[in-house]
Design a protein that fits this description.
The protein is α/β, with parallel strands linked by helices and about 550 residues long. The chain has 3 domains: about 100 residues, no CATH class; about 210 residues, Rossmann fold (3-Layer(aba) Sandwich); about 180 residues, Rossmann fold (3-Layer(aba) Sandwich). The strands form 2 sheets. The protein has an 8-stranded mixed β-sheet. The protein has a 6-stranded parallel β-sheet with strand order 9-14-13-10-12-11, with helices on both faces. The chain is globular. The termini are far apart. Strand 11, helix 19 and strand 12 form a beta-alpha-beta unit. Helices cover about 50% and strands about 10% of the residues. It contains 24 helices and 14 strands. The structure holds one DNA strand of 7 nucleotides. Its main location: nucleus.
Length: about 550
DNA sequence: AAAAAAC
């Protein structure tokens, strides 16, 4: 592709809502980010023509590193100054590509973004078979996060990457992982990917299998820790390359005596949904992650963190602990106080039509739910509730409605969980009731509606839930029920919806921020959620009492 | 606050 063609393509894709941009910039403190962006917009409109002429003459393409080209030029005085000019022009182009794709980078010596997958082969020696597998999967050009994260990983840079739900993060780390490992080797695992749920691990695993088909990489997933202990133990032949796992299964292997797995050859440790895996506290993931970090003891280990939402905590940790960190943000990042909020629209969330629906009370939810079913809806639909118990209850309420409905949560057996996911993928299940288990990372093709039956407890949770629809540029819809009880949290979610460009009643965003005192009180005394049930009260009470008595009498 | 994560 020559410079002209690319310039044209980039020009067509450019859409800056200058009016909105101006308002936002005025409303919030203008930072260097705004300045650099305005500069790029200026370059795009004013300097574009001149730039085009110059690059056409030199035959420089976007796809190769300019420095190398410059080295090949003869270096008398005249050439030298034109070299400088070229270098400058090249930097402007790179800046513009980043601005147009909303790629924000932070760090030193950052490689240029790639604009095509082919560059991974020409510049970074990606196996041509992997490229073919990509084409077979119908993937033609990299998404913004892939454009920047892939060359970074190819240069062995440790990174913290934040990009919207459904914007291709999995591919953004799988491709460079395959490219960096070059070919299968018999020295034990060289790549490890950690996921917060088994469902996500298995999805990533299958994605890796598909990408590496015909290349011979041995990709593994720990599906049963006891079996895996034999497979990867000290006596094994080490014929494996990449491992995908949830934290505890891996730790189980590490804690055997002697350890049933050796991670000392790991070159890449990738933490998917990193803010989730950084969750602290007694039962949080953080300690588990720390154990895994320590086990990857090799001198060559590099680490990469990916998520749609990034907490200040993760960012801080990365700044302190990673080597020459680069952070990449696509659009703007939620959950970090250090970032300038509200400047961009989140591209993934742009593709989701988001609605808030007042249903009055707990009972109103069931009425509204039945109404949606009665009116007819376009399956598949994903329904989020807050607890396992409520997932069960809602399932029992809907199972007689004459629709194909099922339920998934961590209390179901692995077999049941796998079956449910498979049937939902194949379309056998129309309505799937779920807990936070499915909130992150899961890529169901063509979910038409995400229904938040229970109000999400945070904006972050909301973003991940509704991110199950509207993926990879497709259109999706999300409806969120709310009752009187949910009003304290309404403001933050209404703001997310408003930023995404969906209409929200003014009074909602006008709600006062809840004071930390009030918040604490709410945390101590969470509003008691009634159960989901249509059985008349008097029947319930009798049944409940009887059960309790029975329990007490039992020895 | 709940959910998730080993056998």
């Amino acid at each position: 592709m020559d410079a002209f063609e690319l310039f044209r393509k980039l020009g067509v894709g450019a859409k800056f809502d200058l009016k909105r941009f101006g308002q936002d910039a005025a409303r919030f403190k203008v930072s260097f980010i705004v300045c650099s962006l305005l500069f790029d917009v200026f370059c795009l409109t004013e300097a574009g023509g001149e730039l085009l002429k110059e690059t056409q003459g030199t035959g420089i393409t976007w796809t190769s590193s300019l420095d190398r080209k410059i080295q090949n030029l003869p270096s008398d005085g005249k050439e030298k100054s034109s070299m400088k000019r070229l270098k400058h022009l090249h930097q402007e182009k790179v800046n513009r590509i980043r601005a147009q794709n909303r790629i924000n980078v932070h760090g030193c010596d950052i490689p240029d973004p790639v604009c095509t997958f082919e560059e991974l082969q020409s510049e970074y020696r990606l196996n041509p078979r992997v490229l073919q597998n990509l084409r077979d999967a119908g993937l033609s050009s990299p998404t913004p996060i892939q454009m920047q994260a892939m060359p970074l990983m190819m240069h062995g840079r440790e990174l913290l990457a934040c990009a919207p739900t459904g914007s291709g993060k999995t591919l953004a780390f799988c491709l460079p992982l395959l490219a960096q490992l070059q070919q299968p080797a018999n020295q034990g695992f060289r790549g490890v990917i950690i996921s917060p749920t088994r469902e996500l691990a298995s999805q990533t695993y299958r994605e890796l299998l598909r990408l590496s088909e015909g290349v011979g990489f041995r990709v593994h997933i720990i599906d049963k820790a006891s079996l895996a202990a034999k497979k990867y133990g000290p006596r094994s032949n080490k014929k494996y390359d990449i491992l995908v796992s949830t934290p505890n299964r891996l730790i189980f292997l590490l804690k055997q005596d002697p350890p049933a797995i050796d991670l000392s050859s790991v070159e890449w440790l990738i933490v998917d949904e990193s803010d989730k895996l950084f969750e602290d506290g007694k039962t949080g993931f953080r300690e588990q992650l720390a154990t895994i970090f320590l086990a990857c003891s090799g001198p060559k280990v590099r680490r990469a963190f990916f998520s749609a939402t990034c907490t200040a905590d993760v960012e801080q940790w990365c700044r302190l602990n990673l080597d020459n960190l680069v952070s990449v943000n696509i659009g703007h990042r939620y959950g970090s106080k250090t970032w300038v909020f509200h400047l961009f629209r989140n591209t993934a969330v742009d593709t989701v039509d988001q609605q808030l629906l007042f249903v009055g009370t707990e009972n109103g939810k069931l009425v509204a739910m039945r109404d949606i079913i009665k009116k007819g809806f376009l399956p598949p639909m994903l329904v989020f509730v807050q607890t396992i118990e409520r997932a069960r209850e809602l399932f029992h309420e809907l199972v007689y409605e004459g629709i194909n409905v099922d339920v998934i949560h961590a209390d179901r057996t692995q077999q049941q969980r796998d079956n449910v996911v498979n049937s939902f993928r194949s379309g056998k299940i129309w309505v799937l009731i779920c807990t936070a288990l499915l909130a992150r990372g899961i890529d169901f093709k063509g979910v038409n509606l995400v229904l938040n039956y229970d109000f999400p407890t945070s904006a972050v949770e909301y973003i991940h839930r509704i991110g199950r629809t509207g993926r990879a540029g497709h259109q999706g819809k999300a409806v969120t029920f709310f009752t009187e009880n949910d009003k304290p949290l309404l403001r933050s979610i209404a703001n997310v919806i408003k930023q995404a460009g969906c209409p929200v009643p003014d009074y909602m965003v006008g709600f006062k921020k809840i004071h930390s005192k009030v918040k604490r009180r709410l945390e101590k005394k969470p509003p008691k959620r009634s159960t989901i049930c249509t059985t008349p009260r008097f029947l319930m009470k009798t049944k409940g009492k009887d059960q309790k008595k029975g329990n007490k009498r039992a020895p």
